[in-house]
Amino acid sequence: MTESPTPQKQPVPPKQPDSKVLSLLKKLLRRVENFLFFFVIVLIALYFVLQLPSVQNWLVHKTTNYLSSELGTRVELKRVDIEFFDNVILEGLYIEDLNGDTLLIAQKFSAGLTGNFFSVLWNRLEFSEVSLTHARVHLRKMADQRRGTLNELLYRIGDLFGAVQSKTKKKQ
Is the model more confident about 107 or about 163? Predict the structure, then answer.
């Protein structure tokens, strides 16, 4: 009898247990990459949306109404220009003091921010420069007042944004 040749077995490649881990890492890296890409696209879109005049007018309207109601005084603003999150220009700024008299009127108020975009999220603003163009500031301190008109308004703004705690709030 003729013997039939026995088929030779092909060598089996060794199993790589790391292939599953490597595959999961690749998938995770892809998801992180997609998330970062989406985040950057959202930031760029937000910048361009903030440059639209209709969005800026809406922002001006909401901000001035909020400040006027919370501070108990009149605040007006004609236009806001936000330049890539590090420079803010307010045009046509008008603020009354708490007695209803004009405190500040400026054609242009410019503020340069030294922090980054995330410092705003942490309620921390630092300015590299603040400038007023064609402005008039009327400062007064009555004899019966503890603070002048500007200081009183600044304390209210600080209370509003949580920067300064007034003595009346500490006692309560």
Answer: 107
